[in-house]
Fold:
Amino acid sequence: MNRFNVLQRPVITEKSSFLKEAHNKIVFHVDKKTNKIEIEKAVEDLFKVKVRDVNTHTIKGKPKRVGRHLGRRSDVKKAIVTLEPGYKIEFFEGM
Structure:
């Protein structure tokens, strides 16, 4: 899989901001078919950092309803990437 297709977008929430500041962890939405090794290589290649650990989990989509039609949101796979000490990734600093 292409390294540009592995990482879909960073997750910017209060919890992910806390993880970034306190534990040097970055949270990404990733493609559902990727594994931890592909995620690690993609982060190291794109951001020029060293990765210590990768944790992943899949979040099942919630059932939703529009009028009388039932449906579901898409499943999402998240990756929590722990960086080596001394490395960091800047997304929105300085805005």
In short: The CA atoms of residues 20 and 67 lie 40 Å apart.
